[in-house]
Amino acid sequence: MAVILVLLGVVLALVLLLAALSCSQFGTWSRKGIPSPSWPLPLVGHCLRSLLQLEPLYQNFDRIYKMFPGQPYVGFYAGSSPVLLIKDIEAIKHITVKDFHVFTNHKLSPDARYDKSLSNFMFCLMDQEWKSIRVKMTPAFSSGRLKTMYPQVNAVGERFLEAIEKKKDKNGDVAVNPLCSFYGIDVIGQCAFGVESNCLLEEGRSPFLNAVEGAFRFGALEGVASSALMFSNFAYHVLGTSGVSMLKEWRTAVIRDILRESSEHREREPLANRDIFDNLLSMRKNGVPQELFESQVYSMLFAGSETSAATVMFTLWQLALNPEVQDKLRAELLEAREKDGGNLSYETMHELRYLDMVFKETLRLWPVMPWMDRVASEDYTLPGTDVQIEKGTLVFIPSFSIQRDPDIWQDPETYDPERFSPSNSDNLNKLAFIPFGAGPRACIGSRFADMSVKSVVSKTLLNYEVCLAENTPRSEAELKINKMAFIISLTEQLPLRFRKLK
Ligand code: HEM
């Protein structure tokens, strides 16, 4: 009994010590005169609701954003870390573009001792190492390369239509989110992994899907490790040394085997038209080490599949909620298809103005990566202000909140593609539309995402009227948002009704 009491005493003392240490920076924002919500809590700062999984992180940040209307910056504490939330658009331009050399890196840069593969992902690489990989990967996303991948993407889109037919019930209802996820994985699998994955039609039987899910579906422990990495270096190292990390090597073993096979296959049977995977293979041939090469392949899959899938899902849902927008878009698509002799070409698809407006409006309301971060690599003063950002400070750019800010957007909660019409361009603050980030570190795959989302949405509308099913959520409040994920995703199936067009 006495031993137990002593042990409990030691644990309690340790927790109290940790709690006290975690508060050591809590005076940062008041010292600087930067507005900040009151009462940060030991160990969690202002993120208690997210840690208790009552709301996803982006909603937590959105609450903080809205607490200080009219203020350009807000300081808060994520765990023990002081974070500067930037609301001012000019300051965002400075951080992401003009003074990029100071804010080159993300905080999410895992320690290679615990997270070897992940620490080599393009998103996590730092400084020169990041630059060297980014430069090598950029040609994979040129217009010419995208055009040559368009037929491959279209072929996956055809399978999306087949999957709708296969899945729909007697009312024509289909849970659309799994199909969108399979579409996202098949497209990236095909163009960046060199595999004919066909998750759309094979579903559970697809070995590629099983491998991807095995490697990248994070559980609660991995979620804790990623939050710890973001918000408490100390907690991340404690977890790492105890064997808890985000992406365990054994998890990637199966997917690594598939990659080995697909690399050998591509070398034996090269494609006539080069794709992202060819670019990755050339990189390896030209001296990029195997581990770094593998991580770039995984990072395409990781960063490119669920993001595009969620965008397809939100677009179809918004079109079902807004039938007049859907009709207008279909009219544009039908006219273009007729002019093109029955098939939408790559060039035509990119000329379709209303399709682009719909794509942008969906990403304005649903930027599936709802915030971005940067870390200051040296002491920095925000131009035109006396706001000092010390070396090592974490800076957040809350795209979700900015893209719904009523001081920037008229009637921001309304889905209205017309706000992106050319006639409205004078009223639009383009810098406040940042679903793909901004500056040299913006999403490398944005144009690929544009192509793959528009392609499958066009195909769907040319073949189906997309309607609300009985149990489709009618409003945002009814959506069951995943409270654990960094990207915006749903925890429940989203049914939509598909009526075949004559
Ligand atoms: C609608 C779909 C997508 C959205 C909304 C999206 C959004 C983003 C955002 C916000 C960032 C961070 C940008 C920043 O910090 O400034 C990012 C980075 C990245 N994205 Fe995407 N993305 C999408 C699709 C894709 C696709 C299809 C690929 C690959 C084929 C991709 C690959 C990447 C990579 C590798 C990075 C890290 C870039 C770097 O650190 O240099 N993304 N994405």
UniProtKB/TrEMBL annotation:
Keywords per UniProt: Endoplasmic reticulum, Heme, Iron, Membrane, Metal-binding, Microsome, Monooxygenase, Oxidoreductase
Cofactor(s) of this protein: heme
Record InterPro entries: Cyt_P450, Cyt_P450_CS, Cyt_P450_E_grp-IV, Cyt_P450_sf, Insect_CytP450_Detox
Subcellular location: Endoplasmic reticulum membrane; Microsome membrane
GO MF annotations, alphabetized: heme binding; iron ion binding; monooxygenase activity; oxidoreductase activity, acting on paired donors, with incorporation or reduction of molecular oxygen
Topology relative to the membrane: Peripheral membrane protein
Main location: endoplasmic reticulum
Residues annotated as binding heme: 443
Stated role: May be involved in the metabolism of insect hormones and in the breakdown of synthetic insecticides.
Family from the record: Belongs to the cytochrome P450 family.
Protein name, entry field: Cytochrome P450 6k1
Gene responsible for this protein: LOC113217700
